[in-house]
Amino acid sequence: MPTAKKEQTIAALKARLAESKYLFFTNYSGLTVEEITKLRTELRKDGSTYAVVKNTLFARAAGDELAKTFEAFLAGPTGVVFAASDPVAPAKALKDFSDKVKPLEVKASYVDGAILDPKQVVALASLPSKPVLQATLLGMLASPLRNFVGVLAANPSGFVRVLAAREKQLAESASENASGVSSENASGVSS
Fold first, then answer.
1. What is the rounded distance in angstroms from the CA atom of residue 28 to the CA atom of residue 105?
2. How far apart are CA 86 and CA 96, in angstroms?
3. 105: helix, coil or strand?
4. Angle at Cα 73 formed by Cα 69 and Cα 77, nearest 5°?
5. Which of 70, 87, 114, 130 is the most exposed, having the fewest neighbouring CB atoms within 10 Å of its CB?
6. CA–CA distance, 115 with 23 (Å, rounded to integer)
7. How many CB atoms are closer than 10 A to CB 131?
8. β-strand pairing of 49-53 with 78-83
9. What is the pLDDT along the chain (191 residues), one digit of tens a residue?
C-alpha cells in the first residue's frame, strides 16, 4: 500500500505529465547537487523543469500505456525534463550543460508521441528554436505578398512616369514650336 507521501508524489508527477508535451530522460548519476541546480536554472529560462524521479512512482504516474513506452528508460538513476512549449530549447540546454559543465547522459526523449534516441536529441538541439522557425516561416510567407504589392505599386508609378515623360516631351515640342513661330515672325518682319 502506497504511503501518503508517495501518493502526493504520484499526483504531482501526474500534474507535470499533463501539462508537459515533451519529456527528456537523463541519467543524473555523477552529478552534484550544485550541478543539478545549474541544469535546473538553465532549463527554467525556457519554461522547462527538471526532476529527479523514482522510476516506479513515475511509471505509476504515467499510467499503463505510457509506462510501457517509457519502460526501457526507467532504469537506474533517472532525471526527467518536463517541457510544455518547445522541444528544441530543453534539448539545447541539455547539450550545452553536457558540453560546458559535465557530461550528462540523455537516455531518450518523448516528443509529439514519438521516442527519440540520444542521437536524435542531439540533432534536435541543433535546430533553431520554435520562435526563430516561426519568424522564418512568416518571412517566407510574407515575401511573395511584399513582391506582389511592389508589382502593383510599380505599375501606377510607371504609368505616372510615362505620363510625366510625355508631358515633358509635349512641353518641349510646344516650346520649340513657339520659338520656331517667333523666329519666323521675326524673320518675316525684317524682310
1. 7
2. 16
3. strand
4. 145
5. 114
6. 9
7. 12
8. antiparallel
9. 568 888 999 899 999 988 989 999 999 988 999 999 999 999 999 889 999 999 999 999 988 888 888 888 888 899 999 998 888 889 999 999 999 988 889 999 998 888 988 898 888 888 887 778 788 888 888 888 777 777 667 667 777 787 888 888 888 888 887 776 555 555 555 44
The residue whose grid cell reads 512616369 is: 161
pTM of the complete model = 0.67
**Identity of residue 50:** Y
Q: Which residue has the cell 532504469?
A: 75
Residue with grid cell 538513476, as numbered in its chain = 77
Q: First and final CA of the chain: distance in angstroms?
A: 132
How far CA 85 is from CA of 47, 48, 98, 142, in Å, comes to 8, 8, 22, 25
Number of other residues whose CB lies within 10 A of the CB of residue 4: 7
Q: The cell 514650336 sits on which residue?
A: 177
The torsion angles phi and psi of 48, rounded to 5 degrees, stand at -95, 160
Secondary structure class of 84 (helix, strand, coil): coil
